[in-house]
Amino acid sequence: MDGVKSGKSVVREYAEAIIIAVILALFIRSFIVQAFKIPSGSMLPTLQIGDHLLVNKFIYGVKMPKTGWILIPWKTPQRGEIIVFRFPEDRAIDYIKRVVGVAGDTIEIKNKQLYVNGEAVNNPHAHFTDSDILPASAGPRDNMGPVKVPVDSLFVMGDNRDNSWDSRFWGFVDMKDVLGKAFVLYWSWDLNEPLVSIDRFASIRWSRIGNLVR
Fold this sequence. Notes:
Strand content: 25-35%
Number of domains: 1
Strand order of the largest sheet: 1-2-13-5-6-11-12
Shape: globular
CATH superfamily: Umud Fragment, subunit A
Low-confidence stretches: 1-5
Number of helices: 3
Largest sheet: 7 strands, antiparallel
Order of helices and strands: HEEEEEEEEEEEHEEH
Distance between the termini: 60 Å
């Protein structure tokens, strides 16, 4: 005979293949890469509502799922990088923001201008939509600090500076809550378009697909 008859049933073979596929998918999602979508405009114009992106989960080290404890460290987030993290006030929610301060940095905002360690930061990604400048007594949006970033923590802000709920309002991100670094857009469409097939196809932002997240 040219072939060998397997003792496994077809059902068993399919079941084993499915189980292996699920295990691999869970491993990849937990330790390597995970997909996220942008539901709000806090990172405009860098990231738009309807963008779908991939997040590198091992760039900052191998972590235990759920707890976030680092098993194998690689590097730490740097200023300017866009990260996804568990929202400190509700860890069931994932947020995406740009790192503007790392452990030991002193952060201050004066009349919308960000200062890190006493030096003005002119970030080309920072976007402002409101010309009014709010005093510190009205909230920390335009004037706050100085505050020092604690050990194993980050200070993050949205690129849409006048419309972002970020570290100015709720504090620091613990390193154990960092899920990874955003690195590429794999899909994007305008969610404001009507949910009609022809319109939905026309709403795809082809020019954004495949762009690196910077």
